[in-house]
């Protein structure tokens, strides 16, 4: 295998074989970090080739920091990331607040507050990870769909069955197959219940020159340069309209009350006429927005249904050979701003725990420790997403231009976390905690917060009764 000089130094081999199912952000980063940590890696993906659809997401500092081991990606990341400003508007497009960069919060004892937000077009970010993976000699095996996960306690192996009936096994099976993962039967013994949240989104991203060809659209959404990335958020009673653009790409997202046509899928195309039928019902909706919508390439429009799932504490199968990461373990509503970041953190934490375990017979403990290190943090962020879903129903006032929902996401406890050092420092403490019941205090969550299990029904009930959801501890 040829490894180029741009790659990090690899840790000593552990002889732990890892099979990753799904080449999304979680799977690709898990493959890279497992390789760097000395494990043997194989990664499969159901799509026949690399997927180039999707619009944008934010990659938080905890994930950006993880790139530091990978010099080529540090460089590439700075090239492809944009630094967003956000302005709020009424639903007719009239600006309520001036465009503003969003700042990370300086906490009580924090140094090195990140200087900027990194927002990414998913296809570019995905491509960066895929290319880096090729440089370490690992290629995604496309066209391989897992239909079943299994494990064999006595042999200490886990495995999957592919659609064509072939079986592949390894010391660890990483289910990074996204929403609706096939692995929950193996981890939990049942499917996870997902419920419509009542919200759906028409969403797209396409080359900016297509939009700029229309002079009216170009005048309203002028060309931007460098790494600028203005985002406008138009807020109305029935809908929210998000327009984000950079020097090469433009995206719009129309969030609206759910209806049956929407699906929780990142690959099912939708019809522009349906969007225009909806916008025709919105009082004061401006013509320029419809012009932008009409320019959308037909194969680029998704109608994504936002679903809710209660937090699932267990991501590991009973014999400890299968582990879920990313959306397969925990889904987020878009307002949590954390889907990709937490997927990244999972990947780093898992690869580190397997290195700490060091050998194949310790794998089940490594997976359980990883799960324990991550679950409470992830669950807190899922809760924040639900709270924030309510937070964008009105444009902020002139006196307080950053809505509370946005400030929550910039908190120190979120950006300061380093999943690699956290796993290194806490691995043995959690092992002791799990084996002998010793104490363990999470320190990757809001300071002072005492975690207790919660459900979506509980939070919705509080929303309905007009009560504030109680957030004990320092969440901001
Ligand atoms: C095509 C696509 C576009 C997206 N666009 C956006 C976006 O614009 N904005 C946003 O916020 N989020 C988007 N997401 C979701 C976002 O990437 C995730 O929420 C987040 O990054 C967590 O990543 P993940 O790797 O856990 O899941 P995902 O990114 O969903 O990746 C899961 C991968 O597993 C593969 N897979 C699924 N089932 C199987 C199987 N049975 N066997 C083998 N492989 C399987 C999928 O094809 C996919 O490549 C998109 C996801 C996809 C797949």
From TrEMBL:
Keywords annotated in UniProt: FAD, Flavoprotein, Monooxygenase, Oxidoreductase
Cited InterPro entries: FAD-bd, FAD-dep_Monooxygenase_BioMet, FAD/NAD-bd_sf
A Gene Ontology molecular function term of the record: FAD binding
Keyword rRNA processing: no
Residue span(s) of domain FAD-binding: 16-358
Needed co-factor(s): FAD
Family: Belongs to the paxM FAD-dependent monooxygenase family.
Annotated protein name in UniProt: FAD-binding domain-containing protein
């Amino acid at each position: 295998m040829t490894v180029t000089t741009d790659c990090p130094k690899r840790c000593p081999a552990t002889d732990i074989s890892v099979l990753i199912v799904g080449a999304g952000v979680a799977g690709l980063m898990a493959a890279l970090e497992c390789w760097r940590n000395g494990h043997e890696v194989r990664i499969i993906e159901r799509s026949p080739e690399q997927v180039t659809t999707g619009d944008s997401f934010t990659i938080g500092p905890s994930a950006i920091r993880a790139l530091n081991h990978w010099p080529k990606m540090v460089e590439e990341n700075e090239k492809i990331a944009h630094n967003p400003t956000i302005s709020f508007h009424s639903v007719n497009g009239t600006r309520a607040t001036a465009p503003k960069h969003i700042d990370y919060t300086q906490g009580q004892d924090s140094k090195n507050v990140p200087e900027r937000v990194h927002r990414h077009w998913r296809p570019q970010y995905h491509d960066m990870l895929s290319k880096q993976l090729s440089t370490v000699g690992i290629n995604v095996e496309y066209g391989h769909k897992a239909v079943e996960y299994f494990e064999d306690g006595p042999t200490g192996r886990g495995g999957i069955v592919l659609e064509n009936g072939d079986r592949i096994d390894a010391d660890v099976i990483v289910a990074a197959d996204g929403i609706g993962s096939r692995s929950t039967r193996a981890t939990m013994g049942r499917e996870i219940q997902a419920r419509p949240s009542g919200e759906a989104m028409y969403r797209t991203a396409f080359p900016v020159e297509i939009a700029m060809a229309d002079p009216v659209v170009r005048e309203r959404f002028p060309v931007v340069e460098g790494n600028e990335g203005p985002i406008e958020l138009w807020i109305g009673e029935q809908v929210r309209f998000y327009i984000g653009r950079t020097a090469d790409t433009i995206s719009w997202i129309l969030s609206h009350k759910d209806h049956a046509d929407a699906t929780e899928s990142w690959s099912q195309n939708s019809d522009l006429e349906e969007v225009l039928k909806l916008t025709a019902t919105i009082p004061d909706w401006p013509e320029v927005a419809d012009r932008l919508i009409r320019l959308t390439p037909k194969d680029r429009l998704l109608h994504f249904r936002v679903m809710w799932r209660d937090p699932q504490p267990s991501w590991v199968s009973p014999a400890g050979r299968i582990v879920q990461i990313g959306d397969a373990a925990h889904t987020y509503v878009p307002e949590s701003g954390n889907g990709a970041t937490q997927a990244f953190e999972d990947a780093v934490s898992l690869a580190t725990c397997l290195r700490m375990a060091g050998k194949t017979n310790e794998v089940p403990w490594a997976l359980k420790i990883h799960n324990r290190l991550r679950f409470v943090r992830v669950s807190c962020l899922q809760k924040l997403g639900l709270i924030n879903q309510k937070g964008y129903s009105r444009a902020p006032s002139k006196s307080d231009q950053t809505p509370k929902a946005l400030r929550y996401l910039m908190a120190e406890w979120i950006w300061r976390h380093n999943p690699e050092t956290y796993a290194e420092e806490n691995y043995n403490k959690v092992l002791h905690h799990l084996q002998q019941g010793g104490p363990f205090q999470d320190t990757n969550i809001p300071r002072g917060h005492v975690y207790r299990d919660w459900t979506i029904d509980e939070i919705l009930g509080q929303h309905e009764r007009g009560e504030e959801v109680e957030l004990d501890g320092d969440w901001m």
